[in-house]
Amino acid sequence: MPSRRRVLSLLGSATAVGLAGCSGSDSGRSDTISCHTSAIEHGDGDFLDGGAMATVEDDDVRFAVPLSVDDVREQNVNALELYDAAGKLAHVIPVSAGDADVMANKDGVSDGKLRYEQYLGERPLHGRYRVVAVDESDETVDSITVEFNCFPDVRE
Description:
156 residues; three-stranded antiparallel beta sheet; globular
């Protein structure tokens, strides 16, 4: 039987991993309760510590990944690869620290931050994606796997 310390340690780790994909705020959107996203696995790096999440705008489900401009620049990340539950490459999102100028005019993006989004379809939509951040040499910098459930229209 595991010790109490071991059980508490495992519970704390599971909670931290579970919250990693839920960090971030979609203030200003009235339908943030339409999707639930949870991180189920995280790579060894810290590049994707901001997590990844499914969001809904109107009835469109979008997959959002917040990044730091400084991290993109320092780690030479140039793409986010999204792999579906079967392990097939589903989307490639080009990444550049130079995108900060354009994103400065977007709602929900603060100074020094980037927010990349990929359209996935209309809700209800449920899935799992593994996000892999790759650098200019096509080397993996970090990864995170998240599951999401975006439900039919939910009224508050």
